[in-house]
Amino acid sequence: MINKVFKATVRSVLIGYLIVLLLIPIGSIYFKGFSLGWEPFWQEVTGPLAWKSILLTIKLSIVSTIIQAIVGTIIAYVLVRYTFRGKSILNSMVDLPFSLPTSVAGLMFLTLLGPSSPLGVWLDHAGIKLLYNQTAIVIGLVFVTFPFVIRTVQPLLEQIDPAEEQASFTLGASRLYTFCRIVFPAVFPGILAGSMLAFSRSLAEFGAISLISGNLPGKTMVASVYIYGETQNYNPEGAAAISLVLLTLSLLILWIINVLTRGKGRLA
């Protein structure tokens, strides 16, 4: 009897926690976004600057996600399969973007690549612009989403018996062929899940991007910065409308991850 009461209490607390911290805030965004009706909502979303900011956010999020899928998989493979000096330090630094405030990350890139820094001066003389453009946005997104693919692929790599790869090498297969036929199929669910999480995170990034993108309307202004601008211009309905689009995309991505990884076990 006591056990049943305890389970019911814990279940009620968890459900209440989810309702207060997740469902109510999410519901409030949908309510605010549609508070003036469908037509005003559609006008806000399809406005020239709003629509360009959404498309730019999606486009650059896709670019950064592709980079993460490739580079993250390679780094995860190196961390799992190779032993070298400083490996533990490198492995622990993978999670640095999780603990570092994104505004600090933006300031870090400003300090590193700014016109007053040695590297910034050299890049400027070489005609390379890495700040206040779309390249800067991709750099910022890659940094803040760096751990996702690595941390979802690593556990799957650790489950692969190295003897399988050795057997492939013994039979004369190349490293590339072995990776494509043995390693890649096993880690593909992790690559997919990590990439989708990185994409979803990229959609919402604000701190670093607001400092290094230049925030030029229609050119380098991403959706999160546009939302902030709408709140400063006393247009909460417009801000909620764009937020609703990003929120719906994120929820859809999380649902897809859940469907694709169902039955495959936890990836991270």
TrEMBL record:
Chain coiled-coil ranges: none
PROSITE patterns in the cross-refs: ABC_TM1
Topology in membrane: Multi-pass membrane protein
Domain ABC transmembrane type-1: 54-257
Lineage top rank: taxon: Bacteria
Keywords of this entry: Membrane, Sulfate transport, Transmembrane, Transmembrane helix, Transport
UniProt-listed Pfam families: BPD_transp_1 (PF00528)
Primary localization: membrane
Function: Part of the ABC transporter complex CysAWTP (TC 3.A.1.6.1) involved in sulfate/thiosulfate import. Probably responsible for the translocation of the substrate across the membrane.
Transmembrane residue ranges: 12-31, 51-80, 92-110, 130-150, 176-199, 238-260
PANTHER family named in the record: SULFATE TRANSPORT SYSTEM PERMEASE PROTEIN, SULFATE TRANSPORT SYSTEM PERMEASE PROTEIN CYST
Protein name: Sulfate transport system permease protein CysT
Family membership noted in the UniProt record: Belongs to the binding-protein-dependent transport system permease family. CysTW subfamily.
Naturally occurring in which organism (per UniProt): Paenibacillus aceris
Subcellular location: Membrane
Description of how the protein assembles with itself and partners: The complex is composed of two ATP-binding proteins (CysA), two transmembrane proteins (CysT and CysW) and a solute-binding protein (CysP).
